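ENTRY TYPE: paired fold submission
RECORD: A
CONTENT: sequence, then structure tokens
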Amino acid sequence: MIRAKLISIFLITSLFFSCTSGNDKHKENSANQTKDTIVPPAKENFPKGEIIEKVICKSDASQSYALYLPKNYSTDKLFPVIYAFDAHGTGKLPVSLYKDLAEQYGYILIGSNNSKNGTAWEESQRIAETLFADAQSRLSINTNRIYLLGFSGGARVANGITIMNGAISGVICIGAAAPAINSANPRNNYTWLGIAGEEDFNSTEMKKYNKVDLAGHNVKHALITFEGKHEWCKKEVMDEAFWWLELCEMRKNIKLKNDSLIKKRVSPVIKQIETYMQKKQFAEAYQLCKKTIEFYDGLTDLTYCFATYKSLQTNAEVDKALTNESILWSKEEELKNYYLKGFQSGDLEKWKKEISQLNEKIKNGKNKNEVQMNKRVLDYLSLVAYMQASGALKQNQVQAADYFCKIYVLVDPTNSEAHYLTAVVNAKQGNQTEAIVSLHKAIINGFSDVPRLQSDSAFISMQNTPDFLEVVKKASLKKE
């Protein structure tokens, strides 16, 4: 019986999964426009240099967005804007992470509080259209410099909107690449920048999208990788993305080209390529040459870069590295499919053995690329376990949710959500003691959502007990 329930839940949640798996001169260059392009002053003034967590849309009070205006913002200039889409509809998150860069480069930064995973494409479009219309009617936005930014499912939404909307100049996709919709006639005249953690379960997808899907299209594109998982990248990584937008604008409008800044940024990169070549690290030199050309082609002298890149295209070490990368991509897909089927088995002991072996390979592996691949697989299993567990709970299939939560904790023991959902299962099974233990583990691993804790129906019968009140207190302190 449990096997039938598990298969049913698996099919429903995997369907959902497949749907969501697709200085100094900076401000001057970004903001200044000739007088005849200035639109009438914006009708509203908002605080500058600080985050506004919730600006309610005038045409739809159910929609809102987080907003950051740089300190030099004024209504007699036009400013580029970045609209950010978080996978969970937390607009403040990307705005908080990147407000310093918005300040440095002179951008308006806006984060949607409504766009989130699980939203139908038509509704995602409506949310975006309402957001754009509200911001552009109230803020002094340069409509020739509108950019989208998204993470995970939010990246799929951002990419989908970009290929359908000719007003968008470019998109930055973090942690996912495939657009939320497949258009029969996607536009080409925009820029695409991908950002992926090397341990992100979508890293391979993003590399393929950059290397294969966009090949032959009139889309200026590049990919940045960083040491990390499936997550919003750190500010230092995002700085490259802001710089990419500036370079793309300089390429369109040569009057904005800042040779001194370009030289300052490209010189250390060329030196790094030279160092790689001296140390015979040809694969690393090849990748950095490729990225440098993607960023700076047409803006500065890249003679050395082009010559080195051409010579490395026939290099045996480079060829071997590219071949091994392709092999790893295939192996990773095979592993994901193998483990995905395992969610239907109901065999927890087998899962314990499999996860133990996977962690052993990660801990003692000698090949960095294989270690990163195994970490990506583990990260992937964490997401699938979450989706299976939360899906089962929504259907009130507590026994199945218990099984999926056990896998979730095995796969991702430091994930607060794994322990929180386990607490929910324990509470629904009438095991309040174990529920409290799991809630404490959730807090230890970062859980601090007190409103969620207090409103969760699973804990109603426990809310006035000393143990639960102690949990609430600790979660509140964690938030502070």
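RECORD: B
CONTENT: sequence, then structure tokens
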Amino acid sequence: MDFKNLIAELGQAARRASHTLARLSAEQRNQALIHCADAIEADQVELLAANRKDLDAGRQRGLSDAMLDRLELDPGRIEAMAGGLRAIAELPDPLEKVLDEWTRPNGLRIQRVAVPIGVIGVIYESRPNVTADAAGLCLKSGNAVILRGGSEAVHSNRAILSALQRGLGLAGLDTNTVQLVPSQDREAVGALLQAHQWLDLVIPRGGKRLVERVQTDARVPILAHLDGNNHLYIHPSADPAMAVEVVANAKMRRPGICGALETLLIDKDADAMVPALVKKMTELGCELRGDAELCGMNKRFKPAGDEDWMTEYLAPVLAVRLVDDPQAALEHIARYGSGHTDGIIADAPDLAESFLAQLDSAIAVHNASTQFADGGEFGFGAEIGIATGRLHARGPVGVEQLTTFQYRVFGSGQIRP
């Protein structure tokens, strides 16, 4: 297959669709989202059947329980996909907002107005709900999108795309507003990353190897979603019962998502809560890996090596370390963290505020689970990913983060001297 030509055909179709989409009213885009949600619900039987094929293939390939959890669809998750599209439709229109306005001494009136980016490529792994989330967010923000999902979810992604395109057609929109690269060949990804004449932005969502490849090979601007090596620090002022519950949720609610806690830092003056923490986590089936001091305190800890502090487990494994004070916790996070989601559990508001201000993380939390690192929980309806860079967008990427701006200059015949 000539992948360069394949991506060019997809890109040309997407560019045409983006021009049409940018002219639509907010109501037209919202109605299309509702039609897409209805189509996903109507196709539940087909979606579940397609997903079973992916799950069966995944088990044969030896995918981990965490990966299978990411991959699995059930009636509740299908309903959540449809609900996410409806939630996106209810969001304020991100387009044509006047972000700023001023008048120059010569009478020129200048506006900075939110407009679509254009054509967005999304490369992702495992989770088929990303197909619907990415399509919905791009549609709401006036962007056409070319999706490239992982091979482990190929049947699910194609079934979801079919429903989405049927919904777009019922709304009278160009079905090429949302497209899926039809090949799982790695060369197709390479061609997509080189298609700078057709794509305006690429968003990778997946493991470290995927993101590194995109960063290395792309000739298109990228919005990176890196791994979630997330931390919580327990200060001596923390309420012990609350701390245990927050840590348990942050690690074990869904261990395989990027917002899951991977390393827990406990102040040495708060070590009295270690027994209760160990009891709770072992009851939940979590393996604990600790430093030498913790291993000496409790036989439930397995020895942690330097590699453990750098690992995004995406599994029921938690690395735990005792630290001397908040500054030592901050230094550990700065050395080993990925800049995704980190925070503090403390009943000391001034200290917590100072701690958060010193974190170089996209999301900084106080007395809350790291699993709130999610666009839906932020009120964005859904997200394409968590951006861990510093330019254009940071944290959950929702509809507002998928816009750029245009300067509009209004005059009355002014000429420049």
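NOTES ON RECORD B: The chain has a mean pLDDT of 95. The radius of gyration is 23 Å.
STATUS: closed
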